Each structure stands twice: as C-alpha cells, then as structure tokens.
C-alpha cells in the first residue's frame, strides 16, 4: 500500500507530519508532498530548485488577488484557489500512489480544478471549513454553505453572485467529477458540518482525530519546568497560546482578556506563547509573561507542564491542537463548549466547558480548575483521556483500516 500525503507546508508539530511519521513507523510506504520543507526527512518531497521555491513563495500572494477587491472583507483567511501553473498534480500522478491523502492544500498550492485530475482515490482530512464553503476557512455563524454561498459575510459582500458563489460553483463541478473522495472530519462537529453541506453531503464521511505522540507529550516535573522557563514556583500559572495568539481574533484573546479581568485573587500569573509582548500590554492586575513563538515539542511539553491550567478560548476550532497537547502533559483545559473542542474536554472531569462565549463562565472555569479540591485527579484524567483516544498509534491504525477498506472496494 503506497500512500502520498499532500499539504502546503509542514513542520514537526503539524498533524499531517505526525500522522505521516506514525504511518511510516507502522510499516506503511508513505511519503509527504509539500511546498515547504523544514527538515531532512527523505520521505518528505519538496521543491529543490531555487526558481520553484521562489514561485511557491509568490503563490499565496497571487491567490489572494481576487479577495483584495473586497474592501470590507474580514481579517480571516479566504482562499479562492484559482492560481494555476502548478505541477503538483503532475507530481502526484507521477508518484502513482494507491491513496492520495490531502490535508491543507491552500495558499496557492492547488487550483480547485486540480483535485479532479488526481487519478488515485482521495482521503481528505479537513483542518478547517474551506473544503465545503465558498472559500472561507472559518465560517463562524454563517450557514450559507448548506445551500450555495453568496452574499458572503467574510467578504463583506451583499451580492449573491460574489466570489464565494463562484468558488462554490467551481467546487460543485469538481466534486461531481471526482467521485472517489472520502472526507475525514477531525471532530464530530466538523464532520457534521461537512455532512450537512451542499458540496460534500454526497461524499462518504468518517470522524478521525488528529494524532499525538504520548511519549513526547507527557507530564514533566512542574518545578523543573518552571525553572527552565524562569517562571515562579509560588504562583498559579494560567497558560494561553496559539499561532498569532493575541492577534488572531478566532483564538479568543479578547474574550480571555475579559475573563482575566474578572479573576479574584492575586496569586496568579499569566503566560502567553505564540505572540511577543505588545508595545502597550494589557494590565490584568497580575504579571504577564510573553514567551514568543515556540517551534519544538520539547519546549511545548515543558511549558504545558509548568502551567496549572491551559485556557483555549477559541471561537471556532476544527479540533483543538493546543488543548490535547496540554492534556497529554497532564494539564487541565478550560474552553468554550463549542465546535471541535467538545471532543477533547470533558466538563468537570479533565477541564471545564464554559457556556458558549460567556466570558464570566470562562472566568468561572479558570477559578474552578485552580481551586479544585482534587486537582491531581483532574490532571490524571486529562492525561488518560488523550492516551485512550488520541495516541498516534491508535489513530494511525484507524487510518490504515480506512485505506484498506477503500482499496478493497
């Protein structure tokens, strides 16, 4: 069985590479095709010539040209995936895999029309909403994907035949041509959204989570972790982090800030990763540590282990990677009771599910965890949940079963 995974960019921390690595460990002949490579893994295929690398840098900018015509568009990503002149499909078909496993293919990596040209059956792991919408990656309250998009709130458009409708129509044509696509929703919520979409409702669906290496993400001594990060041992540490943690409106820093201002007691310090300290940092009434971007699993593991609670106040998550990383390290998680995070956190067992976008209840959740009479049990439950449900070995075995089923049909 030859499997080719395809994703725009990757590093060792991405779900695509973690799954790729575990499939390889279990004897699957798997390779990963990407536009950007960050290590010397021989099983990862990426452009080698300088010209190709330079063109690939320009792709994401070129793909955004039609979006820039909408002056009232939101800050969230919208991908029309129109830019051609890519040899990705040629590379895929030349490799001639038994299964092509798509992950995040935006940023100018592929045109929508390229999907229909892939000869092998496709497994497509959805990491956001893009596959079943008219171009948005985060749909929030909009449900136009259930019909035919148009008048897109993410574009700030009030026209039916806008860019979202055109992208929708292109996808509809391609998905009708390419019959052998199996959709993987990383969470029950995302899987149901896709199954109820006009574009993908006729495709077979399965719910499989992201994998995590529980031998890498595991509890580390708290005091030693705090020494490594120069964090106080006599304070309760509230941790928050994501890529562009304080600037990405979807990650919920605004909502978390409102919750932190309501916290009672001063024996607390706040720790942020994924963003540097701003020019004018907010005053929450207690010290805040800005640690910047982290790029390796060891740093993340020690930081999660240093914290008393991890807060993931995202407005929408396809899954919730930081949540299950923190729980794998034995750190309880507080989040909103919404979207993909509901698959990870069990209310008042290994964390706290706050009422949807209620900042006061988010505050309540943080205090509930920090002041819990049996805090050690919360930590134990958090670790056990990840070991039983999301260990990379278990997840990879389920993907192998899926591949075999598709090849035997």
UniProtKB/TrEMBL annotation:
Q: Which CDD domains match?
A: GT4_WcaC-like
Q: What is the lineage of its organism?
A: Bacteria, Pseudomonadati, Pseudomonadota, Gammaproteobacteria, sulfur-oxidizing symbionts
- Extract the signal peptide range: none
Q: Which residues form the Glycosyltransferase subfamily 4-like N-terminal domain?
A: 14-137
Q: Which segments constitute the Glycosyl transferase family domain? A: 224-382
Keyword Transferase included in the entry's annotation: yes
Highest taxon above the source species:
Bacteria
Segments spanning the bilayer are none
Native organism: endosymbiont of Bathymodiolus septemdierum str. Myojin knoll
**Keywords tagged on the record:** Transferase
Q: Matching Gene3D superfamilies, A to Z?
A: Glycogen Phosphorylase B
Q: What is this protein called?
A: Glycosyl transferase group 1
InterPro entries from the xrefs? Answer: Glyco_trans_1 (IPR001296), Glyco_trans_4-like_N (IPR028098), Glycosyltransferase_grp1 (IPR050194)
Single GO term (MF): glycosyltransferase activity
């Amino acid at each position: 069985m030859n499997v080719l995974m395809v994703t725009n960019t990757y590093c060792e921390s991405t779900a695509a590479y973690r799954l790729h690595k575990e499939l390889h460990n279990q004897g699957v002949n798997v390779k990963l095709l990407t536009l950007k490579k960050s290590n010397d893994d021989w099983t990862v295929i990426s452009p080698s010539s300088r010209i190709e690398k330079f063109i690939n840098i320009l792709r994401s900018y070129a793909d955004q040209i039609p979006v820039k015509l909408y002056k009232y568009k939101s800050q969230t990503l919208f991908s029309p995936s129109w830019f051609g002149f890519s040899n990705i499909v040629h590379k895929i078909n030349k490799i001639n895999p038994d299964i092509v496993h798509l992950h995040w293919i935006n940023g100018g990596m592929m045109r929508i029309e390229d999907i229909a040209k892939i000869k092998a059956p496709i497994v497509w792991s959805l990491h956001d909403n893009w596959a079943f919408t008219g171009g948005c990656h985060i749909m929030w309250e909009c449900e136009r994907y259930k019909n035919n998009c148009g008048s897109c709130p993410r574009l700030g458009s009030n026209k039916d035949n806008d860019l979202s409708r055109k992208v929708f129509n292109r996808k509809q044509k391609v998905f009708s041509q390419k019959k052998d696509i199996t959709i993987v929703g990383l969470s029950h919520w995302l899987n149901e959204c896709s199954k109820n979409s006009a574009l993908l409702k006729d495709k077979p669906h399965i719910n499989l989570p992201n994998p995590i290496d529980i031998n890498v993400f595991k509890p580390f001594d708290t005091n030693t972790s705090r020494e490594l990060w120069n964090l106080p041992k006599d304070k309760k540490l509230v941790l928050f982090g994501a890529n562009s943690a304080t600037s990405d409106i979807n990650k919920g820093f605004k909502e978390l800030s409102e919750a932190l201002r309501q916290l009672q007691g001063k024996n607390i310090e706040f720790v942020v990763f994924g963003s540097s300290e701003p020019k004018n940092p907010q005053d929450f009434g207690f010290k805040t540590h800005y640690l910047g971007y982290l790029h390796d699993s060891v740093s993340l593991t020690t930081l999660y282990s240093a914290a008393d609670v991890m807060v993931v106040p995202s407005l929408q998550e396809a899954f919730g990677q930081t949540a299950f990383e923190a729980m794998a390290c034995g750190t309880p998680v507080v989040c909103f009771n919404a979207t993909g995070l509901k698959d990870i956190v069990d209310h008042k067992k290994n964390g706290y599910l706050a009422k949807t976008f209620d900042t006061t209840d988010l505050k309540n959740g943080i205090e509930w965890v920090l002041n819990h009479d049996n805090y050690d049990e919360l930590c134990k439950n958090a670790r056990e949940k990840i070991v039983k449900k999301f260990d990379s070995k278990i997840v990879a075995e389920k993907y192998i079963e899926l591949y075999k089923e598709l090849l035997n049909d």
